[in-house]
Write a structure and sequence with these properties.
Elements lengths: L2 H17 L1 H12 L8 H17 L3 E5 L7 E6 L8 E6 L8 H4 L3 E3 L2 E3 L3 H20 L8 E6 L9 H9 L4 E4 L16 E10 L3 E2 L10 H26 L8 E8 L5 E2 L2 E10 L1
Parallel strand pairs: 3-6, 3-7
Antiparallel strand pairs: 1-2, 2-6, 4-5, 8-12, 9-11, 10-12
Length: 281
Amino acid sequence: MSEGIQNEIAPALSQFCHEHQSEMLSVLKQAVEIESPSDDKVALDRCGQYLAEEFERLGGKVTLYPQKDAGNHLKAEFPDGGGSKPVLLLGHFDTVWSMGTLAGMPFRVADGRVYGPGVLDMKAGIVMMMFALRALRSVNHEAHRPVTVLLDTDEEVGSTTGRPLVESTARQCEAVLVLEPAQGLSGCLKTARKGVGNFTIHVTGRAAHAGVDFERGHSAVVELARQILDAAQRLRLNHLQDFEHAPLVPHQAEGFGVSVTSSGQWVIVGRSRGSVRRRGI
């Protein structure tokens, strides 16, 4: 799309979106009220079916990619007939909110903000995709590139099944726009993403009875605790060093998950496992 065409249609596109704000909120409400936590395939597929119908209503060619454990991924293609490479609108519709969250966190609009599980990350972004396509149609603008929408269902848990589809689709596209939320209350546009490192710590100690054979045992849980504290300290030091060089970059995130293998309450645990996830600049 040339700069001249952009300047010509931008006001009309903006006007369309303002005029359809209440409809956008209505579609968002429906999407949010179809809860879709990452670990619930039935719920994910229910939400995916709703989104598929919405994109079909816009004229998209919808393909669902069946998954055994994750929800079925969704692709919607909007060709322009020109043969140029498409722009990819990328997102996901799984959320971090467990099933039933909606009961205590209902969809609502207050003081110019929208609330509800999955509103920010990232069902609002999906609704933006829909209405951007509708806005282009409203001004009878056919000169844009073809558009491909791709939504995966396990982004919040690592995109184990979604990643191959995302990578193969992106290679066929001219550019990728990820409609995840802007950063912070100021709405800063994200132009890059952090990398993620996942590490698993396995600890093997010596199991023993905690009451009568304590001195012979070496607790894997105690050692795992030491390792977690050490990892946290190292990550914090790295973060402080990175922040000195890039103070405007949002902070890194470190998370810990702990799994313990035990055969009883009065046992010095012989095996334990911890996972560390770190986002780096």
